[in-house]
Structure formats: C-alpha cells, structure tokens
Amino acid sequence: MATQVSEPMRLPDMPLHDPFVVADEGTRTYHLYTSNDPSVSGVEGVGTMVYRSHDLRDWTRPVVVFLAAEQPDLWAGDGGWAPEVHRWNGRYYLFTTLHDEKIPLPVPPPGRWGTPFALTNHRRGTVTAVSDSLLGPFTSVDPARPTPPGHLMTLDGTLYVDPSGQPWMVYAHEWLQTVDGTMEAIRLAPDLTGTIGDPVFLFKASDASWIGDEIPAGVPHQLPPYVTDGPQLYRSPDGSLLMLWSTYEKNVLGEDGTLTGGYVQTYAVSKSGEIEGPWQQQRPLVRNDSGHGMLFRTFEGQLTMILHRPFENARGKLYEMELDGHELRVLRQRTDLDGGG
Fold it and tell me: What is the rounded CA–CA span in Å between residue 169 and residue 158?
C-alpha cells in the first residue's frame, strides 16, 4: 500500500535512483524522471515516474508515465532502471533498462586471477518508448527486443546526436559479461525504432587508472571486475565531447559474486569531439557512494549536475558546475535544495 505523500515534496524525502532532468522551457518546469516507486507514486508495477518543479526545491507527487505491464508483448517486465526522456523530431522518447532472468546469456569463464563467477547472466538492455507528452503515456516502439543487440548484457542507454544529425544510443556493456565493463555506441534509425550497423567500442572501465590507486598489491580478489554505468554525453564550449559515467573504485568481488566498493561520479573527454574518441579519462568529480549523474542547465543558465547518493535508498543531490574548455569542475553542492549529506 502506498504511503500518504504530501505536497510539496523535497529532495531529501524523494526516493530517487538514476535521476534524469528535462528542463522544459515552454512550461518553465523541471521534469525529474526515475524508476517507479509505488510507495510515493501510488501505482504498482515496473516502470517510470516523474516529479515536477518550477524551482528545484518544491516538487509534486510523482506521476507514472510508463508501465512495463501495460506494453503488449513486451520482452521483459523487470528492472525499469535509468529512465531518460529526450525530445526528437517533435516527440518525446523514453529510454529505460529492463531485464528478463528467464532468458540466459553467457557468463565469462574464470578469470586469470582464478575467481569463478557464481552468476547467471540474463537478457538485459534498454528499451525505447515514445509519447507526444513529457507526462506520457509512453509506448514501446519495438516490444520484441531491447534496442542494443540482444545477445549483449547492457544497461543505461542514452541518446547522443552527432554533428551530422545521426542519432546514437550509447550504453554500458555489463561487467557481468565482460569482466572489464565497456562503453559502446550504436547508430539508431532516423525514427529511433531500430539500429544501424554494429556497436562501436568507446572505452573500458579499467582505462580510468585511478580505479586501482588504493588496491594493495598481491591481493588477487581485488583486481576484477571493472564497472561501467550511467553514460551521458555533453558538448563543451571548445567543441570537445564529454561523457559523464560512474563506476566503483577499490572493487572487491566476493566468493558469492557480490561486488563491493565505492561508487563514484566521473567523466571522460573526447577532444576530437567525435563519439569514437579517443577518450581520455578524468579524475572523479564526486565520491562518497555517489553516481549516475547527468548535466542540465537551469532556467537561469547555471550548469547543474544531479546524481544519487547513497547507492541504496538513494536521494537526489544537486551540484553547480563549471566548464573551462573541456575541464568540468564542481563549484558547490546545493545543500539548500538537496538537504546536504
């Protein structure tokens, strides 16, 4: 049963994992998308809900805009992670990650460190749905399959449009299938209903050399795996292409397959301005079990990052940001809005 939720809501009281903000200039309204949580939406089921605000301080009770169970013949009904909404050709497109544990996928062999993967991999990937409104309802464009190739275990798809106008989906290829997680991209059809060609490798998690800065030498279980999560692309004033992404540092893989470590928000830079890179990894922006962030501009023009913290029972945290060329910096946390922590 849903708990009674009063309005306005504030970020410290709003369940919020993998946050994504659309600042709608037409209505001067911020739309904050996240996975459906029945305790606040009042609606049961795997899907996407949206909070709304005019000032990033006071938010409405969330409205459900997508439910997996309402999509005829949808290939999966679990997950509902990392929803994003993008305007494209006059319509709104929702990307969200679903999975189906009944469709097995290959697992990697025991690594060179001798650690077996006590895991059963299954189909996981981002689906695309469309609506004429930011408030939905969103309808799946292809209920038969995920947008990235179905034999890959992927998540967190995001939209990128290159300078020629070609749309891409950029996604994380799971460490569960690769050990060293990767970021990849695939071209999308003009109407976003399918893909064109093969995936393009962008970078792997271990390219961020700082991940292992504090790992003691000679400890075999503290090397793999390396995680890629939450990509978002952003063009810098100097023409470089930035990618926000998240990972874990000081990884430990337990005998039961449990991954522990510190979740961090970081970013990479393609100075060529091309999605193909080469990508240069930067130092983390925010640590403290924080991540899956994205950048947006407020109606006053301030570049802002929203992420979630902590990983479990997450809440949204806001940061004022600055771009100097292709260097992204945190100016301050908006503790007046997000309650600190």
Answer: 5
Assigned domain for 80 exists:
yes
| CATH code where residue 110 lies | 2.115.10.20
Q: Which domain holds residue 328?
A: 13-338
Instruction: Check residue 2 and give its pLDDT.
Output: 46
Residues lower than pLDDT 70 in the chain: 1-5, 108-120, 212-225, 250-261
**221/251 Cα distance (integer angstroms):** 9
- Give the Cα separation of 54 and 47 in Å (integer): 24
The conformation of residue 69, written as its DSSP 8-state character, comes to G
d(CA 118, CA 221): 14
The number of folded domains in the chain is 1
Task: Output the six-digit token pair for 338.
Answer: 């997000």
The answer, as to whether pTM is greater than 0.90, is yes
User: Is the Cα dihedral 91, 30, 51, 47 positive or negative?
Assistant: positive
Given a contact cutoff of 8 angstroms between Cβ atoms, the answer to whether 34 and 19 are in contact is yes
Q: What is d(CA 268, CA 234) in angstroms, rounded to the nearest whole number?
A: 10
- 3 occurs within a structural domain: no
Q: CA-CA distance, 297 to 295, in Å (whole number)?
A: 7
Per-position DSSP letters for 149-216, written without gaps between them = -TTS-EEEEEEEE-TTS-EEEEEEEPHHHHSB-EEEEEEE-TTSSSEEEEEEEEEEGGGSGGGGTTPP
**Percent of residues in the chain assigned helix, strand, coil, to nearest 5:** 10, 50, 45
Q: Is residue 159 part of a domain?
A: yes
Q: Which two tokens stand for residue 314?
A: 């997450």
Strand pairing of 167-173 and 182-188?
Answer: antiparallel
Contact 25, 298 (CB under 8 A): no
Residue 251 lies in a domain: yes
Token reading at 49: 């809900």
